[in-house]
Design brief:
Elements: H1 5-14, E1 20-21, H2 24-29, H3 39-44, E2 52-54, H4 59-72, E3 76-79, E4 96-99, E5 106-110, E6 113-117, H5 122-129, E7 134-136, H6 148-154, H7 161-164, E8 173-179, E9 187-191, H8 192-196, E10 207-217, E11 221-228, H9 231-243, E12 249-255, E13 275-282, H10 286-296, E14 299-304, H11 306-312, H12 321-331, E15 335-337, E16 340-341, H13 349-360, E17 364-365, E18 367-372, E19 378-382, E20 385-387, H14 391-403, E21 407-408, H15 426-435, H16 447-457
Parallel strand pairs: 2-4, 3-4
Antiparallel strand pairs: 1-2, 5-6, 6-10, 7-10, 8-9, 8-10, 11-13, 11-14, 12-13, 12-18, 15-20, 16-19, 16-21, 17-20, 18-19
Helix pairs in contact: 9-10
The structure holds flavin-adenine dinucleotide.
């Protein structure tokens, strides 16, 4: 029960035709995400929950809820599938969780562009787009459950970012249909840079109803695992495959020992003590990858054709990105993780990685996802596992990275600006003032807005 409990209950009673969830256990579950990956957030967000959850299926139902909440000043926290990592869809101040997973129709895909309602699961989007010759440019490892709106509102990228960069790269997202939070909600179409102001703002800025995104040509993908006894050889192999313009790939994931040992479902392909590179490739690139592998002294222990992958329903993508963390946590609950951005070419990201392995190996376990940065440079993103002892030591570890010139996108914070965004963006705050003038969306998560409110009050 929060301050808003009575008003939330009144709204639910006023709109009986909508799908309301008020059972306390279910409301608790639908107020949580995967912030438990972080021992720090787990503690900070304990007990934070909504008063009610609503699952609208049409734009009109969304409008009814939003109008009622705006009239009664009840906070709204938007939820897709709740796979976010930073408590992004956990309400700090109660109110209503607006679960958009039922607002999920596929729209269209043509000429390299596609559009759908925000609650569509990424797997369903891909399934609908493939027969039309297209696929999504990025599949987070949560693609089976995560929604398009959730990836845009709280995600980064995924398999495919090695070709198209993060979601944030200019040209990936083309438009967003957005509903304002007002007693008479308005619907606007924001294009290009205006739409991007809503990206990775944890649903604090506006309610995204539909997204229009640039797509990739549909491709059949095979999967392979290469293993090595030497850390640096494995790293250089992963880098060589990633850099080679003739090799078509969708994901290159490097896992330093002992991480492969945590991937229990594929343990038979991962010899004890190995360093592994998980690959999602075009079939025409297999022989090229094998040549690079021979040059680096590795061995291919796993190979599935695109047809095998389709038929089995199992994909290595679900062992990459933060699924590596999930698998490791199933194995050892004392682990946590950090996220880092190395210094891209022409700077020496491989040198930074080797230096960190030498300094912190054993305590920080190296997991890298190769990608193109927003600007197009080859780089990799670290999602290192950490043997957690104390919050102070965790902060020290992150500082050691920063001291080496490695940027940390801290996953142990829930405020937008304390994570990847890094600082207050006045354009985002100004857009929020237009779309959510009362500040009802996910209150407490956008520092720029909280500071503005205090300044106005003063
Ligand atoms: P939610 O968690 O429900 O929401 C995320 C944020 O977006 C919330 O703040 C919410 O308020 C906001 N939001 C949701 N819908 C809307 C909307 N319609 N309008 C405005 N705001 C909205 N992330 C990656 O980028 N790549 C990965 O590979 C990846 N792998 C992961 C693996 C695991 C095991 C886990 C637990 C997480 C991973 N993530 C990854 C993080 C997460 O899965 C992605 O961010 C995902 O796309 C979120 O989708 P969702 O539907 O679950 O969003």
């Amino acid at each position: 029960m929060t301050l808003h409990a009575d008003r939330a209950a009144r709204i639910a009673a006023e709109l009986p035709d909508l799908d309301w969830i008020v059972d306390p256990l279910k409301v608790g579950r639908l107020s949580a995400d995967f912030s438990w990956f972080s021992p720090v957030l787990k503690q900070q967000l304990a007990g934070k929950r909504a008063d009610a959850v609503v699952r609208p299926r049409t734009e009109d139902e969304i409008r009814q809820v939003v109008a009622a909440c705006a009239r009664d000043s009840v906070p709204i926290t938007i939820r897709g599938s709740g796979t976010g990592n930073y408590g992004q869809s956990t309400p700090l101040q109660g109110g209503v969780v607006l679960d958009l997973s039922g607002y999920n129709a596929f729209g269209w895909a043509r000429n390299g562009v596609g559009r759908a309602q925000a609650g569509i699961r990424l797997a369903d989007f891909d399934k609908a787009a493939r027969p039309l010759g297209h696929e999504l440019r990025w599949l987070p490892s949560t693609f089976r459950t995560a929604t398009l709106g959730g990836l845009f509102g709280g995600g980064f990228g995924g398999a495919g970012s090695i070709n198209y960069g993060p979601v944030a790269a200019t040209g990936n997202v083309l438009g967003a249909r957005v509903m304002t939070v007002e007693p008479e909600p308005r619907v606007l179409e924001l294009r290009d840079a205006d739409a991007m102001l809503l990206h990775h703002t944890y649903g604090t800025t506006g309610i995204v109803l539909e997204l229009e995104v640039a797509l990739a040509p549909a491709q059949s993908w095979m999967e392979a695992i290469a293993v090595f006894t030497d850390f640096e050889k494995a790293l250089h192999f992963a880098n060589a495959v990633s850099a080679n313009p003739a090799l078509i790939k969708k994901d290159v994931c490097f896992l330093g020992a002992p991480i492969p040992q945590y991937l229990t479902p594929i343990a038979e392909f991962l010899p004890e003590g190995c360093h592994a590179v998980l690959l999602v490739l075009a079939e025409c690139s297999e022989s090229g990858v094998r040549q690079v592998l021979a040059e680096h002294g590795g061995e291919m222990t796993y190979r599935k054709t695109a047809d095998d992958v389709q038929a089995s329903g199992r994909t290595l993508i679900e062992f990459t990105w933060n699924h590596t963390t999930l698998n490791a946590l199933k194995h050892d609950k004392t682990l946590t993780y950090i996220q880092s951005a190395f210094d891209p070419l022409p700077n020496d990201y491989l040198g930074q990685i080797v230096a960190l392995e030498k300094q912190l190996g054993g305590e920080v376990l190296m997991h890298l996802e190769f990608l193109r940065t927003k600007e197009g440079g080859l780089n990799c993103s670290g999602i290192q596992l950490v043997r957690y002892t104390t919050e102070a030591r965790l902060n020290e570890i992150m500082q050691i990275h920063r001291d080496l010139g490695v940027r940390i996108n801290n996953p142990h914070v829930y405020v937008v600006e304390d994570g990847k965004q890094g600082k207050v963006n006045p354009a985002i705050v100004a857009l929020k003032a237009r779309l959510d003038p009362q500040g009802l969306l996910n209150p407490g998560k956008l520092r720029g807005w909280e500071e503005r409110t205090q300044a106005v009050a003063a």
